[in-house]
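Researcher: Structure prediction, please.
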Amino acid sequence: MFKKILIANRGEIACRIARTARAMGLKTVAVYSDADKGAPHVRAADEAIHIGPAPAAESYLKTDKILDAIKRTGAEAVHPGYGFLSENADFADALEQAGITFIGPTAETIRAMGSKSAAKDLMEDASVPTTPGYQGEDQSPAIFKREAERIGYPVLLKATAGGGGKGMRMVDKEADLEDALLSAQREAKSAFGDDRFLIEKYIARARHLEVQIFGDGKGKVVHMFERDCSVQRRHQKVIEEAPAPNLPKKVRKKLLKAGVDAGAAVNYRGAGTVEFLYDPEGGAVYFMEMNTRLQVEHPVSELITGHDFVEWQLRIAAGEGLPLEQDDITEQGHAFEARLYAENPRQNFAPSIGTLSTLRLPGETARIDSGVEEGQAITPYYDPMIAKIITGGKTREQALARLRAALEETRVAGLETNAGFLHALAAEPDFIAGDVSTRFIEDHETSLFDQTPAGPSIWAAGALWKRANGGDPWPNNPGFRLNRPRHEIFWIDHDGAPSVLRLKQNGAAWNATLEPDASAAARRDGREPQAPVNFAFSGEADGGAVKLHLGGEDVSAFAAPHGEGLRIWIGAKHWNLAFPDPLAGISAHHSSEGSLTAPMPGVVTLLSAKPGDAIDAGAPLLVMEAMKMEHAIKAPYDGVVKSYKFAPGDQVKDGDLLVEFEESA
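Model: Predicted structure follows.
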């Protein structure tokens, strides 16, 4: 066994690897960029080496800097985690040439599976079933149109070097194919340096299943059963579980055999995942790809088998072989993993950057794999994952109930997250029944994206928190008058609606009136202002905890500062309240009409029009790349482009004005 390993990664997976290595008595070396100085993964290791600036291309993806860190620390092996250099065959070769063990498969295997097209050819030769499609060398739009016609729409475009849903597009008619291909090629070229594509039949109600395998590199391969990763957004996984629910025994047997056969076909070494599409209507299982690394969702398989997969990786890499035979690997119970991301589900899951001003993750109800902490910033340089929330139980129902309970305990402020969305998923009746597919989110948009408007309980919780925690005297006017009942005034903005909340003391309780700002509502979108809302409440705030009695019911809430305002949770749902400065005008913080700003830092990659062009509502105005994804900035209404403020290739900051756009008369 090695004495010291270097972890060529960051975040939660680096912390995860360090935890197992320490338990095995191994020393660890962390590497870090400028953005990660002092990050949890740095403190989790015995040594840490700085490897460069924040951009991954200048630090975590620099083979020479990793090799230098190995030389300086005397590490004998490298664990690549996932992402970054984990599936880089040249990196694996460089380590071998330097006499350093790569904790993963051989470079030959990585190359064989690194191209989806080549992998598909290899699997067909090994009699592993594959999805109908085209993966030829001719990459012209004309060929893709011809093959799509042969396969039949809808079709799926996939980057041959892709992963994580990047460079993937579903196309349902020929008119959209060429534009989708060009957009996907740009994204793939930027993400992987390779713009080659394949095309496959799109199975609308497919399930995404995967088999966890381990191989000894000498011909022996075992499986750790399957996972269901069907629930996805932008072709990226959201919630995973093991084993797959409602899977017929014959299909499961076929799936596990195909996974082992795929590993044996490439003489696999270490941990890998073979991904499949399952068509419930036809009962067919199709090979999609093999990920030659540890998967993000591996903890659910660890929970049902009781084995530490990082330990298995280390033992296999050290030459010890497979720790167990297939018949000795058993499963018990069920497990779920929810990926907590800094992203905004209501803006097509766009990544959110900012400082984690509040970060409270569940305690005993879940296993938490995280690489961030309260006060740390989520930057535009890396994946916006905050944590993986993992729960297990004797039954699927028990594990899922524990996941919902854990998500109800999750509190994050300072940026947007998908926590509430994850809870809505875990509480959706069809998900509870195990009736899932890769279109689950699209098919359940109404229930999953439903947002109950802020109401009296939120306004009352905000007022109690502000009274208990003080702050700027201007937004909170005590209105003292001699020998008259105490009253207070709060200027608030809830759900984009500027309002005034007036409180009048009535013994131990308060009578409240919320008066929407009529002029601001009219200026904003022309809607008729809401009528004043009257209600009464009592309660108290202690730190973030707020106890309310309102409408004959007791309500427990939690509040924490969020930006310039407040985030309030009741259960798993949250609402944001802003407290605008009344002296600056109640709507002063609203963005000016007719302007479109950058939602996050990034690079402008394409201008879709030119000044003077008339654009229909919903049509793209420009495309920017941020956090490894393309984001189209679209026209909010019919109008005319007045001017662009940036050119392709320009770097933009969060909030930069990108384009001036004038609404049509």
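Model: Confidence is low (pLDDT under 50) at residues 472-477, 519-524, 585-594.
Researcher: Thanks, that helps.
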